[in-house]
Amino acid sequence: MSSPNIHPAAPHHLPAFITAPGETDYLMVAMAVLLVVAVLTVGIIFFRLHTLPERMAHKSQKLQFEIVAVLGLLALFTHVHLFWVAGLLLALIDLPDFSGLFGRMAHALERIAGVAPRRGTASSPEPPDPSDSREIPVEPQPEHPGHRKEPTHA
C-alpha cells in the first residue's frame, strides 16, 4: 500500500532534492544564495575591469587622468566601448609635460627680446630686486678641458 502523502502515479522512491509539501527546499535556497553571490561577483569584476584605465592613470600620476576618467564614465553610461578603449590607450601612453618647457621658452624669449616679464604668471620668475646688493661669486671657467686650476691657499 502507498502512503497517503504520495500521489499514486509517483514512484515509491523519490530523489533527495524533491521535498514533501510544506517542507523547506534547501536546494532552492542554496541556488538562490549562489545566484545572488554570482551576480554580485560578476558585477564587481565588471566594475573593476571598467575602472582599470582610470586606476592605471591615477597610479602612474598621468597628466591625462581627468580625460581618462571622463572617457570611462562616458563608456559606462553610453555603452560605447570605444570610449573605454580610448581611455585605456590614454592611460598606457605617457604624454610629455610641455607646460614647463613652454614656460621656460617664453621666459627666455622675453629675456632675449628685452621685454619685461609679466608679473603674476607661474611660468616666469620674479625679476631680481635692484635694491638687493648680494652678489654670488662666480669662478672663472678654464679655457680648455685639459687646463686644471691650481688650488689657492689663503
What does this structure look like?
The protein has 154 residues and is mostly helical. The chain has a domain at 26-92. It is 49% helix and 0% strand. It has 5 helices and no strands. Helix 2 (52-59) runs antiparallel to helix 3, helix 2 (52-59) packs parallel to helix 4 and helix 3 (65-78) packs antiparallel against helix 4. The chain is rod-shaped. The N and C termini lie far apart (125 Å).
Relevant terms:
154 residues, 49% helix, mainly alpha
**Tally of alpha and pi helices:** 5
Rg from C-alpha positions? 37 Å
What about the largest sheet? Answer: none
Low-pLDDT parts are none
Which structural category do the helix and sheet elements fall into? mainly alpha
- How far is it from the N-terminal to the C-terminal residue, by CA? 125 Å
- Could you give the count of β-strands? 0
Beta fraction: under 5%
- Categorize the overall geometry: rod-shaped
Average pLDDT rating: 79
Give the topology string: H per helix, E per strand.
HHHHH
Helix content: 40-55%
